[in-house]
Structure formats: C-alpha cells, structure tokens
Write a structure and sequence with these properties.
CATH architecture of the largest domain: 3 Solenoid
Oligomer: single chain
Structural class: mainly beta
Number of domains: 4
Shape: globular
CATH superfamily of the largest domain: Single-stranded right-handed beta-helix, Pectin lyase-like
Radius of gyration: 24 Å
Number of helices: 1
Largest sheet: 20 strands, parallel
Helix content: under 10%
Number of strands: 48
C-alpha cells in the first residue's frame, strides 16, 4: 500500500491548493497497486478559476438550450477529478475544502475500486441567498440577508454577486416558481412559492444586513419566514460518478451544491455511508442543494445508502431510474434510439450482450425482448444498436434497458426539508427501504413511477420492500405507486411490501396505487382512517 501525504506535495492547511491538488492526484495515478492519499485536518481553499475543465454530460442537469451563446455546453471545472484510476483511497482526514466559485466538486470517471472519505466541501459565497423576514407592515417588509451572501443595491435594485456571477435578485421574478419558503412556525417543512421580490416597488439599505422592500400588498409575508433565492439552472453537480465500478463515499459532508449533490451514471456497485448532504451547523442557510440530492441513472449492480443525513433539497432526495429511449427508426434488427429529455443525453450505457425490452408507452408493458449485438453513440441525442431479434416495437414505442436497473438498499437515513418527493424509484432491481426517518417531504415520501412521455424515466418495479420506516410528515400520499400509463392492460409494478412502518401526518390516503399487482400491507401504524386507495 503506497501512502501519498498531501503535505509532501506542498499542501498545507489555510492555503489555496488548487494546482498542488492536481499534482497530488496525478502522482497517485502513476502509482501501481493500492494507494491512499492522506490529508491533515484543517481548512484548505480552492479557486474555481484555477480548476481544470472537463467535458461532462451529466444526466438530469442543464440541457443544451439552457446555455448562453458565450458558454461551451457541458464544460465543468472540477477540482477533485479522478479519471482512469484504480485502487485508490482518498482520505481527507477530517479536512474542510472551501471552493470559491461554481464547479462540479468531484468527478470519478472510468475508475475502479475508489473510496472517498472523511472530508467536508463548502462553498464561499454560494449562489443561494436567504432572506429572512424581520418586520412586516402594510406597505413594506424588512428582510435580513444571510451572512454568506455578497450583495449591493444599485438604481433601486438588489444584486447578488460572487466568483463567476452577478445577478439581479429579482431575475425572472414573475416566473420563478421554484423559490422555496421555510415558515417560522414549521421550520422542518419547505414549500415552493412565488418570488419574495415579485411586485417590489422600492428597495433601500437599512442597518447591518437589513433591507427594506416596499410593496402595494404585504399579506403573504410573516415574521421569521425564510426565503431562498437561487439559480435553478442545473449547470454543475456535487459528486459525479461516471462509467465506474465499486465506488464508496464515506463520511463526506457536502454543504452546498449548484444542482445535484450526487450523480451516478452508467456505473456499477456504489455505496455511500455516514455522509451529510446538509448545511453546516450554525449556517443561516437551510438548503444544501439546488436540485435533487441523489440521481442514479442507468446503473448496474447495487446502490447502497446507509446512515446518511439529507437536509434541504430543492427537488427529490433520491431518484433511481433508467431511460426510455424513443425508437425513431426501425430497420429490422438495427434500431436508432433517441434521448427524449433535454437534460439527459450524451452517453451510451448500452453494451453488447445486454437485454432490452420494447415498451408500449400507453400501457407501459413489454411487447418483446432482444439482446444487443452492437451499440454506438451517433451524436449527443441518438444511439444505434443492433439486436439479435428483429424489433417488435409498437408504433411510437420506446426501449428500456433491462440490465441498467440496480438493486437499491436505502437504510437508516434521515430526510428532512425535501421540497418534492423523498424517494422516486423506477428500477427492476430488488429495493429495500428500511428503518429511515422521513421527517418532512412536501410531496410523497416514496413514489414508484415509470413514464415515457415527460422525463422518460424507466422502468418497472418488481420487488420493493418498505420496512420499519417512520413518516413524520408527507404533504401528499406517503407511498404513491403511480406508473404513468394512460391505458391499463395489466400491472406495471409488482410485489410491493409495506410493513411495520409508522405513518404520522399526511394528506389523502397512506398508500395509493394503480396498475400494480401483489401489494402487502402488514403491521403498520396509521394516524388516519384513510389507509389505501
């Protein structure tokens, strides 16, 4: 086992280390066999403008049409980039890395047997800004701006700024439906609301970090309420795992992410244990991610999440899914497939020997199967495969990749302040959701979906066990089984067990299902007479 000490490569606490960090990782890459990178505990600083750039097509992030003319699509600065490496442990030793500027925090690309552990990632002046209501009168509201935010008032307009950005605080205010609100009386709950500066007439600076905003009507505001304003464009990610095997994340604390906190794409056997995706203690911000905490797309093997804390997400806590490819050309055994959602494209997880299923998008049921004999990416949005059996695709049909549906273990985790669903699952693998605490989700705690008309996320759930969990609060049905079929020709999902859970506050029925076979409810405790529909 080779030990590479960061201090031997000129990396010391309380210094800016961007260039030295690359040199250290490059040195580790040259070492054969098992090796460990070790840091001393302390705070280290990373400059986004000194980061190397990489072309990364990251699923469920920014689409091509969302880039401005002066941007190169899908270019990511990445300070922690691990590419084509094997048998590496990166041990932060309790270090805290502070990144100034917008980047993808870490990328593990084409790697095997990688462990990242024992460190924290924070961002200096992140592009997420909290306004807390201090005072409400009939004609104006006093807000306090969080201490991480740099701002100025110019020509009666509020601007936020930091490394790589300057933005008007009321940008897109009439259409900004994604703004989140945490009310003082319900601090664990989060909801999407209209922009707090929509309709503002005048903004003035008051003492300290207080601003006064004049309105014609202030009825929507309450003292102590906290609004978060942020750029909803999912341009970067926290940790990105791509085309890699056997990756472990252990005791990692991500305090803010510019879109998704963790994306696993076209990879196999991933585990995260003892991690925190949450604001640091004492932080004024109550949000840690602009979008989902976890996206697992077109992965194999097993995905495990145990003993983690997830606090403050701008979308789902975790989404595990495949892709429904639209069949745009069928030449017998040769098929041309297309990525249909603009935020997922540019990679090819379809391999020779894999099994695919032809799916009727109306019923979401199989019409046939085939084995891939060749596969290639034609362009960012289209793939071409050859199969051993002539395509039996229905008109307007889609194709599901059966092998890219991992087993999932989600155990002993805590979820709170999740603005949409807790878990969104569409995978054929075995799923175990056990001994978790769902403190607060604005929508369902668990959703089993499957669609071929909007996000095009596959596939059928075949064995899901939901055991010994506590659902403190769900703004909608705690367990929602809802494939997006428009015609019922048979069950889409099968074999769902919901046992020995505690359901506290929720809207509607506790369990709601459609087009599903073999549902077992046993030993649960309910706080309502509305149990299943």
């Amino acid at each position: 086992m080779k030990i590479l000490k960061a201090s031997d490569h000129g990396i010391c606490p309380e210094q800016e280390i961007t260039a030295q960090l690359y040199n250290l990782i490059d040195a580790a890459k040259k070492e054969p066999g098992k090796k460990t990178i070790c840091f001393e505990k302390g705070t280290y600083y990373i400059d986004s403008e000194k980061c190397r750039n990489y072309m990364l097509h990251i699923t469920n992030t920014v689409g091509d049409s969302e880039f401005s003319p002066d941007e190169t699509p899908h270019i990511n600065g990445v300070p922690f980039y691990f590419g084509d490496m094997k048998d590496l442990t990166f041990d932060g030793g309790g270090a805290s890395f502070v990144i100034d500027g917008k980047v993808t925090n870490a990328a593990v690309v084409c790697c095997q047997n990688i462990t990242l552990k024992n460190f924290e990632i924070r961002h200096a002046h992140p592009d997420m800004h909290m306004l807390e209501v201090l005072r409400v009168t009939p004609f104006y509201v006093d807000f306090e701006i969080d201490r991480d935010t740099q701002y100025r008032i110019q020509n009666n307009k509020l601007y936020f700024y930091g490394r790589n950005y300057t933005v008007a605080a009321d940008k897109n205010a009439p259409n900004a439906f994604w703004i989140d609100l945490i009310r003082a009386k319900t601090p664990e709950k989060i909801q999407r609301v209209s922009h707090p500066l929509f309709g503002a007439l005048k903004i003035t600076q008051r003492a300290g970090r207080c601003i006064r905003v004049h309105f014609t009507n202030t009825l929507r505001f309450r003292k102590g309420d906290c609004y978060h304003i942020f750029d909803v464009r999912r341009q970067f990610a926290g940790i990105f795992i791509d085309r890699s095997e056997n990756v472990v994340l252990e005791n990692i604390r991500q305090r803010f992410n510019y879109s998704l906190a963790l994306v696993a794409q076209d990879s196999e056997n991933i585990a995260m244990r003892g991690c925190e995706f949450a604001p640091e203690k004492g932080s004024a911000r109550k949000m840690a991610s602009v979008a989902d905490f976890i996206q697992v797309c077109m992965c194999r093997g097993k995905f495990t999440a145990e003993n983690n804390l997830f606090d403050g997400a701008g979308d789902d806590c975790m989404n595990v899914h495949g892709v429904h490819y639209k069949i745009v050309k069928n030449d017998g055994s040769q098929l041309t497939l297309r990525y249909m959602h603009p935020q997922t494209h540019g990679f090819n997880p379809l391999r020779t020997g894999d099994t695919v299923a032809f799916i009727d998008p109306k019923s979401m049921l199989e019409t046939g199967k085939a084995t891939i004999t060749s596969s290639k990416l034609l362009n960012e949005y289209e793939l071409q495969i050859t199969v051993d059996t002539p395509g039996r695709a229905p008109p307007g049909g889609v194709l599901e990749h059966i092998n890219a549906g991992p087993d999932v273990v989600f155990r002993n985790n805590t979820l709170t302040r999740i603005i949409t669903r807790g878990l969104l699952l569409t995978t054929r693998g075995d799923v175990l959701i056990e001994s978790n605490r769902f403190i607060s989700t604005t929508m369902s705690g668990i959703l089993l979906s499957d669609d071929a008309k909007s996000w095009y996320e596959s596939g059928m759930c075949r064995n899901v066990r939901i055991l010994n969990n506590t659902f403190d609060y769900c703004g909608q049905t705690p367990v929602l089984i809802k494939p997006e079929n428009t015609v019922h020709k048979g069950p889409v999902h099968k074999n769902i067990e919901v046992s020995h859970n505690v359901f506290q506050k929720y809207s509607g029925y506790c369990v709601q299902a459609k087009s599903t076979d073999n549902i077992l409810l046993k030993g649960n405790r309910y706080n309502s007479s509305k149990i299943i529909k």
